[in-house]
Design brief:
Chain lengths: 315, 284
């Protein structure tokens, strides 16, 4: 299913394919016409993807087929051993984590996990964690500290689950605890925003020495739909809200909220997952290399300073 | 004139409804309360015990030792995103500042509480529903850092609808910033007491308000992560009676005590004295 703004591109691609088919079956030479169309396609793609609105980027961030946490782990790490459960209440499939190697370095990894289809999305609760998901993350932060392993997170959630059971089990409390625990790590911590960075549920595993973001991912205090429902009293004004929230990767870079943008292939990460994964790997290795010379206390102080400086006000 | 006063503008929910001049009405039990009694009773209904909203200034009067409070807050908000919804953010800010008579949704200062040197930070619901943007986050962080430097306890009274949308991701970052600041306090073994009042939700609950050494809540306060309306929309069911109220949180192990406002000062002093390293000789 193409996104609304991708439709002209899909149409042109279809037309070119049709013409190519006709040319080869009939033997008529259409190379001149085809070249014109291919040029036009290249131009159209360039125009569309270099001028994406914030709302269009949000749609790309949610596009089916976009690499999920498990895709990224499977694609750029080896020997992954998944670790489950919070040792207190249960297992939350909306958060995955475990041990793996990244280019020979043993790391601890945690991320929100979206499903690939409706069935898996139900199992994963659409990547909206309950408290036990965050407790699992906290447990893995303990593990990373104890064994001195770099801690890597992948953020991709619409938000922490807003439900009765989640409130009963202290959703706010575990998010605060997770923020605090991650802040206290004495190992390098890197957070990568893969797709959706929905509010506190995202930040809970977002307190890295470096915070990286994919080109079309978003990160904000509220989703554009919920923001529109509150401020415009109409969720259909989400496009306006997305603009106002300045939730795109370039916005966040200029505010100092993220440190680096990881490029995506034209049309979004789902168009060419392999390239996307390699870009993520490269960025992670660079970030790890930057942090290599810092000792445990320096890593903590580096993270403290990074977040201490965020905010704009007048004295 | 009298008639006109009877039909005066609607009051925000949770405040005592006005009956001209001398009397107020409890929004919970409809009891008619002599306003002076309500004032001396710290805005708790003498009939049913309902806790009405209390201004930030009254909170300070109620908790800080008399004459000890020395204000440290005063930062002014900016409009870093150029945020415009149905009106520009700076216009909203002007209105909030006029209504609340302060630059942003927090006031705080050095003081003693039962003789214990403290930093007291109080959020103000009258300013944008006590929402947390850069100023609230920065003032709380500075307050905590100051307390760590000067060996003071920290007491934060929360009342907040959550993070402020108009500062978007910068508001979100205040959750991390304030939480990190608390580490400075831990390192010095200085106590931090969080007081949750009606309502405390969203990004404030999910950061500094929830990770105190001791958490006290006022009776009947709405406290949680997601607001009840959002939860109702998500699950498409009515919410159980008392859901997300202080007593519910006590039952589920999230707060240490639900304390009547009239006993709050006494309880707070006890806790601070028991925990603060310099209070061995600070008998009352």
């Amino acid at each position: 299913m193409p996104l609304e703004f991708e439709k002209p591109i899909e149409e042109l691609e279809a037309k070119i394919a049709e013409l190519e088919g006709f040319a080869s079956s009939s033997g008529v030479d259409l190379s001149g016409e085809l070249q014109v169309l291919r040029d036009r396609l290249a131009q159209l793609k360039a125009d569309t993807f270099s001028n994406l609105s914030r709302w269009e980027r949000v749609q790309l961030a949610r596009a089916p087929g976009r690499p999920t946490t498990l895709d990224v782990i499977g694609g750029i790490m080896t020997e992954f051993v998944e670790l489950s459960g919070d040792r207190t209440f249960g297992e939350d499939a909306a958060v995955v984590g475990g041990l793996a190697y990244l280019e020979g370095t043993s790391v601890v990894v945690v991320g929100h996990q979206k499903g690939r289809d409706t069935k898996e999305n139900i199992k994963r609760n659409f990547a909206m964690p309950h408290p036990e998901g965050y407790r699992k993350a906290i447990r893995l932060m303990d593990l990373a500290d104890r064994f001195g392993r770099p801690f890597i997170t992948f953020i991709d959630t619409p938000g922490a689950y807003p439900g009765i059971s989640a409130e009963e089990r202290g959703q706010a409390w575990v998010i605060a605890q997770s923020i605090q625990r991650m802040a206290r790590l004495r190992v390098p911590a890197i957070a990568v925003i893969l797709g959706e960075g929905g509010s506190g549920g995202a930040l809970a595993i977002g307190v890295g020495n470096r915070v990286l973001i994919l080109e079309n991912a978003w990160y904000s205090v509220i989703s554009p739909e919920s923001c529109a429902a509150i401020l415009w009293r109409d969720a259909r004004e989400a496009a306006k809200a997305a603009e106002a929230l300045k939730l795109s990767a370039p916005d966040l870079l200029s505010l100092g909220i993220v440190d680096k943008i990881i490029p995506e292939p034209d049309g979004g990460a789902h168009r060419n997952p392999q390239t996307s994964l390699q870009n993520i790997k490269k960025a992670l290795l660079e970030a790890l290399a930057e942090l290599k010379h810092l000792g445990p206390e320096e890593l903590f102080e580096d993270r403290y300073r990074r977040f201490r400086g965020l905010g704009r006000y007048q004295s | 004139m009298a008639l006109e006063r009877l039909f005066r503008r609607r009051r925000a929910q949770g405040e005592a409804r006005d009956i001209p001049e001398l009397w107020a009405k409890c929004p919970k039990c409809d009891a008619q309360i002599y306003k002076k009694d309500l004032e001396t009773n710290l805005h708790v209904c003498p009939k049913c015990g309902h806790h009405m909203r209390l201004s930030a200034d009254r909170r300070i009067e109620m908790l800080a030792d008399e004459g000890s409070f020395e204000q440290i807050t005063g930062l002014k908000p900016a409009d870093p995103l150029g945020f415009v919804d149905t009106e520009p953010y700076p216009k909203r800010l002007e209105r909030y500042q006029r209504e609340a008579q302060r630059p942003d949704a927090i006031v705080g200062g050095r003081c003693t509480i039962g003789g214990v040197p403290s930093v007291l930070l109080v959020m103000d619901y009258a300013f944008a529903g006590g929402s947390m943007g850069s100023v609230v986050g920065e003032e709380i962080t500075r307050g905590i850092e100051l307390a760590a430097q000067e060996n003071r306890a920290v007491v934060i009274v929360s009342v907040s609808g959550g993070a402020r949308m108009q500062e978007a991701a910068l508001s979100l970052m205040q959750m991390a910033k304030t939480t990190l600041a608390l580490d400075r306090l831990w390192a010095r073994r200085l106590p931090y007491v969080s007081i949750l009042t009606d309502p405390t939700t969203g990004g404030v609950t999910a950061s500094f308000a929830a990770i105190a050494d001791v958490i006290l809540a006022e009776p009947g306060a709405l406290i949680g992560f997601a607001g009840p309306r959002v939860i109702k929309q998500t699950i498409r069911q009515d919410l159980p009676e008392g859901f997300q109220r202080s007593e519910f949180l006590l039952k589920h192990g999230m707060v240490d005590q639900v304390v009547d406002r009239r006993q709050l000062n006494e309880t707070l002093v006890k806790v601070l004295k028991l925990l603060h390293p310099r209070t061995v000789n600070h008998g009352r």
